[in-house]
Amino acid sequence: MDLRRLGPSELEISRVGVGTAPIGSRPGEWWVNWGPQDDGDSVRAIHAALDGGVNWIDTAPFYGWGHAEEIVGHALAGREGVFVFTKCGTLRRDDGDDYMDLSPESIRRGCEESLRRLGRERIDLLQFHDPDRNVPIEESWGALQELVAEGKVRHGGLSNHPPELVERALAVGPVAALQFQYSALARAPEDDLLPYALDRGLGVIVWSPLASGFLTDDFSLDALAEDDFRRTHPFAEQDLASTHEELRARGGGSVTRGALDFVLSHRGVTGAIVGVRNEREGRDLAAAV
């Protein structure tokens, strides 16, 4: 598996990593519903990807409100050499909605809870999930740097943050990587975030490179569960035939491979996060690159 250095860090990561939003899916408990998911299938999917050479996993407390992290912890029990990236700041309201809290107290509490669910002593990359407009990023980033100094976190990253907030964080301490959405259907980062990351020498990991499944070979909107969030996704209203044709040509007959090649061919992208839900998808993820 081809490895790339993640920004200014010492981490050498595979071109794709295991995404865990789909395996965190818990109908009725988390509003981002991906349909029914068996925990055994989730563990087998992770094992298959790792056995194929993938060496990192991206997760978050938000995914199933801790469920995805618990699955990752179970899957990695007894395994070495796997980097675990998670996030902090997204909290749940009593009505099931979510909000951001990147106060120092929330960051520290979230880190401790993630470490417990993951069964680890240190998080390789702890990322702020989204901006918190109520807390100055200098205060938040200072709190994360304290966790790094204490050895509970190896590196810090910023997810879904614009360049101006990243620049303010850099004035406080190192930023190893940025994370944001990028795919053949979501190309806005080409105008600002990707050039900025290249200029500042930051690592980039992108989420939804397959557009939540819309850019895969076997995707069918009709086959989704009735309450699957993708049924009302903006991509569901688009005619993707021409995009599929272009990606299929790029991927040697595979839309999925073409979509991955599209994002990974950009020199600013270090790695792509791809969700897997069963053993076959885990094997396919490793084989795709």
How would you describe the overall organization of this protein?
It is a single chain. The chain contains nine helices and twelve strands. It is an alpha/beta fold and 289 residues long. The chain has a single domain, classed as NADP-dependent oxidoreductase domain (TIM Barrel), CATH 3.20.20. 48% of the residues are buried.
Identify the notable features of this structure and list them briefly.
eight-stranded parallel barrel; alpha/beta; 289 residues; globular; 9 helices; two-stranded antiparallel sheet; single chain; TIM Barrel; 34% helix
Name of the CATH superfamily: NADP-dependent oxidoreductase domain
CATH topology: TIM Barrel
CATH class: Alpha Beta
Question: How many distinct folded domains?
Answer: 1
Backbone structural class: alpha/beta
Given the C-alpha coordinates, what overall shape results? globular
The biggest beta sheet reads: 8 strands, parallel, barrel
The topology string of helices and strands comes to: EEEHEHEEEHEHEHEHEHHEH
Low-confidence stretches: none
Tell me the strand percentage band.
15-25%
Strand order of the largest sheet: 3-4-5-8-9-10-11-12
Approximately how much helix is present in the residues?
25-40%
Summary of the model, kept short:
With 289 residues, the chain is of the alpha/beta class.
What is the fold's blueprint, element by element?
Elements: E1 3-5, E2 12-14, E3 16-19, H1 39-51, E4 56-58, H2 67-76, E5 83-88, E6 90-92, E7 98-100, H3 104-118, E8 123-128, H4 137-149, E9 153-159, H5 163-170, E10 177-181, H6 193-200, E11 203-207, H7 241-250, H8 255-264, E12 271-275, H9 279-288
Parallel strand pairs: 3-4, 3-12, 4-5, 5-8, 8-9, 9-10, 10-11, 11-12
Antiparallel strand pairs: 1-2, 6-7
Helix pairs in contact: 1-2, 1-9, 3-4, 7-8
